[in-house]
Amino acid sequence: xxxxxxKTGRFNIYKNKTAVFSNAFAQVEVxxxxxxxxxxxxxxxxxxxxxxGFGKGEKYTVKLAGDGLPEMEExxxxxxxxxxxxxxxxxxxxxxxxxxxxxxxxxxxxxxxxLRTLFVPFDNDTFISYDAKPFTRxxxxxxxxxxxxxxxxxxxxxxxxxxxxxVWKTGVLTLNQKDSLNTIKVVDFLxxxxxxxxxxxxxxxxxxx
Length: 209
What we know:
By secondary structure, the protein is an all-beta fold. It has strands spanning 2-5, 10-15, 18-30, 33-36, 42-52, 55-65, 71-79, 84-92, 97-109, 115-119, 131-134, 140-144, 146-151, 157-164, 169-176, 181-195, 201-207. It has no helices and 17 strands.
């Protein structure tokens, strides 16, 4: 279940009534300025049923507006028979340029045990291997397209990554911080800022039982 707070622009993700992620948000860099879903003052919500290649489910759309800000949309797709959801973030307006969009940003508490974070090399990297890195203090992992964070003995954890995009690269950043809060960000980026035309990146969240 996804619970979105229309007052703050943050959302929580629940699995079996337990919060998996809390106070997640989206942010983008537009014309050199970082804007998050928390910066907007007006948020409206709509819901519709869907049936696509992933199955049947529901689509939730949050439209965000604010003075001097480009329009933003956060869209969530949930499916009746799937243990995951999809989300995407879009921005629209005149004369917009961006080279960084982050549809999912959040912190999560430290998990006990042999915690690992999966490193997947970018496709243009050579002689670099996949690596299940120990997720210990001060570990920073930027993985290409997808990552998994899991406890190595129980194999319980979650997977997060890009489902589709057109021009953008996707990195999934996990960071183990000294204040006992770990960071997860899905970062869609380009080496230079481009005119925003169809800024759509969808990502997948899935967890193991």
